[in-house]
Amino acid sequence: MTEVDDGPSGPQETPPFLLRLPGASEVDPARGVLLDEVGTNGSRKFRILAGSPARENEMPSFSKHFTATARERETLKKTGVLRPSARWPGWLELAQDVDCGSPSFAAGVLVGAPRNGWVEWRTEAGAPLSDFMEGIWTGPARAWLVRGSNVSGTDLVHCLWLPEERVSLAAPRLRQGIGQGVSKERLRTVVEEDWGPTATYNQKLELVEELHAFLSRMKPGDTVCTLSGGRFYVGEITGPVEQTVSDDGRSNLRRPVEWQSTGHAYDTLPEELQQRLSAQHDVVDLTTAQPHIKGLGRSDEELADEAEAIERDPSGTIPAIAARRELELPEPEQSLAAELLVHDVSWLRELRDLLWEERQLVLYGPPGTGKTYMALKFAEYLGGGPEQVKLVQFHPSYAYEDFFEGFRPREDPRSGEVAFRLTAGPLRELADLASREGNRHIPHFLIIDEINRANLAKVFGELYFLLEYRNKSVRLTYSGEDFALPPNLFVIGTMNTADRSIALVDAAMRRRFAFVELSPRYEPTSGLLRRWLDREELDSRPADLLDALNSRIDDRDFHIGPSYLMKKGAHRAGGLERTWRTKILPLLEEHHYGESLDIEKRYGLDALARSIEDGEPNGPSS
């Protein structure tokens, strides 16, 4: 047994720990013990016991990203300490005890691949090693970003963290004796007293969150990341926090870390990870992006091989591989073109390509051109069903609080009292749904009907920025959280060009959306009614009348779309005349309001029918 002094409770005995190697059902598990001795970087050492098995092969990229562990394996082989096993053909075996800098380093030596030793070294009863580390916050492994490239003008990443295998946090005014496991409530009092008037209220709030994360939430086995010189570095926390003295207090809180040997270019990182990295805090929880981090620099085969040692549901997926699953928008097929009565499936494919490239587009055109119907059906096809599609309609009084989030009166289900509570709007709800684990490869669509009828700058607020910079995040107005639009969230707006509020659409809006016109002058709208009449086996006369009508309307933004006449009621006895009188002519009366124009004489059914019979589709000019 090895005693571990790991907190105020004094020494604690720990049992031997076992490590089951991947693909080793016929091989005994490796055995090891946790040591009292602490390495140069503050990590507690771990001893692998003689007779422990090891894999002969190692992960192909192991020597590149985990140079120190790979070098130790090679040294042990050359010296005969790690040699072919007589008991287990095809495996290696330790000839003597080997001391390693941390449990994870020890596991990596045996497996030839990265391993979280705090989780995978277990007792006979299955308890992980981390359960025996008193004073250290327990729970599943998390991932963290700690910024160190500009701490009081110094790049600590290259001058301290990487060479000395540490990560640190500047807390120059923090009193001595504030150690591992301190509560957030205690930190609030300490920060208020120790920083006093030297920090603003918001700065103190931020300090409490960062200190609590570094002191109490981080634990051995967690992933830690940082950025420096355009590169992203990944490591593993290997021990408890240490409070020390440093020049100018730039690094007086420290944790030991085993850093991977190479960094990753920032521009090559997955978009979801870049979004989290753009949060403007010194300590950021990256756990939601953990599968992306784990997969950096490793092939699917390496990740699958690494996962073999973890007890898991065999029917499940490996998170790091699942995170790589490409988001796709299916290619429109002829069946969709037939359903939407589009003249050519290539038009739908171009629409799909625009949406893929821009993430946001607007279908615009005169009334009745089927913009909303097209948007809904197209989104349902691309998303795989209506569950991934949400529709909202803008109007002049629509606001940010309606669209994204704001305080709304809500009744407390327990007390029955009504109070203002932060309530999510349709965009926030859909974004939360799209970003759930397991949903990130599924396209989700927000349809904004009549997008030009609201004050767009007021409705979108800071979200305007995210429409253009999808790999960034912003601090939200009400909740104060960091928010980014999920990569699998697409926005389709519809815009009625006959609505004078189109003037509210400014250059910023036009820059963030691709615009696609649906006009009676062009396909797929120009021949839509004829195709529908043909499919329904109805007379083509209404299509002739609509063409004649639009030829008399000078302003193309007020042309009449075919959807008014694509209803069964318009083709029953008296239906055409009723639709013309109650739906179409009122639109044209509004268009010519204040003009001395006889609407019936110019646009009435009788006038249009006579012009068609006379072979003069343009008819009289007044």
Tell me the layout of helices and strands.
Layout: E1 2-5, E2 11-14, E3 17-19, E4 30-38, E5 44-48, E6 53-54, H1 62-65, H2 67-78, E7 82-84, E8 92-94, E9 98-100, H3 103-111, H4 117-120, E10 143-146, H5 156-164, E11 166-169, H6 184-195, H7 201-217, E12 223-228, E13 231-237, E14 242-243, E15 253-259, E16 264-265, H8 271-277, E17 283-285, H9 290-294, H10 300-307, H11 319-323, H12 334-340, H13 345-358, E18 360-365, H14 371-383, E19 389-393, H15 400-403, E20 405-411, E21 418-424, H16 426-434, E22 444-449, H17 456-460, H18 463-468, E23 474-475, E24 482-483, E25 489-496, H19 507-512, E26 514-517, H20 528-535, H21 541-551, H22 575-591, H23 599-603, H24 605-613
Parallel strand pairs: 10-12, 18-25, 18-26, 19-22, 22-25
Antiparallel strand pairs: 1-2, 3-4, 4-5, 5-9, 6-8, 7-8, 10-17, 11-15, 12-13, 13-15, 13-16, 14-15, 20-21, 23-24
Helix pairs in contact: 2-3, 6-7, 21-24
